[in-house]
Structures are given as C-alpha cells and as structure tokens.
Amino acid sequence: MANTTVSIRERIKTDTGWRWSKRIPVPEGKLNPAEAQRKGKFNLVYTEGGRKREPKVKGKTFEAAVLAARAKQRHLEDAADGFTRPDPLKKVERKKISEAIDDRLRRVEISFDWKTLKAHRQALRQFEKWMGTIIPVASSWIRLTTHVMSFRNWLLKDGNEKKNSKKERQ
Q1: In a domain? residue 46
Q2: Which of 127, 155, 118, 120 is nearest to 164 (CA)?
Q3: 21-63 pLDDT, tens digit each
C-alpha cells in the first residue's frame, strides 16, 4: 500500500539559529483559535512517487498548513485508490475561453451531425463574445455555472432580438 501520510514541519528560531521542528502530525477535527492563528513558516512532508517531498505552504498560519496537508493527504489517498484528480498544491493550468471552446468542438465533432455541430459552434461562439475572450477558465471545458445560466437568461430575454421582433410583428 502506498504511503499517504502527510505531516507538517515548522521553521523555528533557537539560540543557535534557525531549525526545523520535528514532524507535526496533521491534527484531527477543529483547531483552537490560538493554534489556528499561530504564525510561522511551514512545509509539508510526504512521499510521492518514491521520493520525499517538502513543499512550502503558501499561507503563514498553522491553519493554512493544516488545510494544505489535509488536501494533499486526500489527493495521495485518491491516487492510491486509482483515482486521478488535480494536485491541490500545483497551479491549475488556465486557458482562454476560445481555447476551451476549440477543445470542446474537437471532441464533439465526431459524434454530432454537421447541422447540430454548426448550431453548437454558433452557440459557443456567441457565448464567447458575450463573455469576452480575456477571462481564463480553470479546465478544458467551461464549468462556470453562474456565467452559463446568466448567458442563458440573457439569450431568453435579449439575445434573440430578431426572432422576438418577428414574433411581435405577427
């Protein structure tokens, strides 16, 4: 079985200089307020891919170190069980909306009829114009539920002006 244990180390100033603390196990349950707000420099300690890793924790509080350690431990446990998900300690690769749309269209062009694909492409390009092209997204497909629902509401209300105006004339 893979090692999924994550612990924390703190940089401590002593009379003889700076030292690393012994490994601190990740506490279970809630932290008391004094413990949570304890400030310092923290590193996580774990083994991944047969190698010891000691990345720095971004936050300067013990609470930030505990949250990072718990997230990494869940990631290691999932990997040991055969599940793949993004590493919580690494930056998420961000794409522009146009790149995400192109990826989506490449994946679905095989399974759709050309007329359906054309309608799909038009709707996605209209969404891209509505959103603007400079907003990055966190994955290969848009998962911005709020934006998608806002776009849908905009389409129902204002987006189909030509169609709505034809209905009003009749």
Answers
A1: yes
A2: 155
A3: 899 888 888 888 888 888 989 999 999 888 999 999 988 899 9
